[in-house]
Amino acid sequence: MKTLRNAADRNDIVGRVARVRPDSPRRWGKMTPHQMICHLCDSFRGPLGVKSLGIAPGYVLRGVMKSIALYAPLPWPKGLPTMPEMDQHKSGTPPAEFSNDVSELLRLTDRFTREPRDFTWPPHPIFLQMSDKDWMRWGYQHMDHHLRQFGL
After folding, report:
1. What is the percent of the chain with per-residue pLDDT over 70, rounded to a whole number?
2. Which residues contact residue 34 at a Cβ distance below 8 angstroms, ignoring those fewer than 6 apart?
3. Which domain holds residue 119?
4. Is the pLDDT of residue 79 over 90?
5. Which of 40, 45, 72, 104 gets the highest tally of CB atoms within 10 A of its CB?
6. Beta-carbon neighbour count of residue 149 at 10 Å?
7. How far apart are CA 87 and CA 36, in angstroms?
8. Residue 2 is assigned to a structural domain of this protein
């Protein structure tokens, strides 16, 4: 099971991020490649304590959802709603300069995975309490999902 905790898996994801281009063709969804990079940045800023995270209302069986989303051998579904603070069409960080935003994503990924941690894990907006193992798996799954969105 791939995770950002594993150096080889992390290096693979970082290599895939480096292959994103402003004109990478989208396979699904509404985001442009640049918006996707900014979305991933915002998604790491939340757990790092740089951006506030809300708790998504209305989810039942969060523990079951977490187990399936993080540990079932299935790709994440396409078209799930995004929290407004992570959505570049709403209040997410707007794209600026592509190469700088990619560099920022790589910097945030490094901080997210670096040990010892210089932050404390907050509750996840949907899954609530997560272990270090859960967060590392989530980080891989989330990046993988959006990189696949652009054929990477």
Report:
1. 100
2. 22, 95, 98, 101
3. 7-149
4. no
5. 40
6. 18
7. 9
8. no
Q: How many residues does the chain have?
A: 152
CATH value at residue 75? 1.20.120
Whether the predicted pLDDT of 102 surpasses 80: yes
Q: What is the mean pLDDT of residues 145-150?
A: 97
User: How confident is the prediction for the chain on average, in pLDDT?
Assistant: 95
Cβ 16 vs Cβ 106: under 8 Å: no
pTM beyond cutoff 0.70 = yes
Helix, strand, coil shares of the chain, percent, nearest 5, are: 50, 0, 50
Q: Where are the beta strands (DSSP E) in the chain?
A: none
* CA atoms 140, 78, 124, 43: torsion sign: positive
**Count of domains in the chain?**
1
**Coil, helix or strand for 72?**
coil
In this prediction, residues 54-72 reach a mean pLDDT of 88
User: Given this model, what pLDDT does residue 132 score?
Assistant: 97
**Six-digit token pair at 15?**
């290599």
Q: Is there a domain that residue 75 lies in?
A: yes
User: Is 82:150 a contact under the CB 8 Å cutoff?
Assistant: no
**Mean predicted confidence (pLDDT) in 130-143:** 98
Rounded CA separation 24/37 (Å): 12
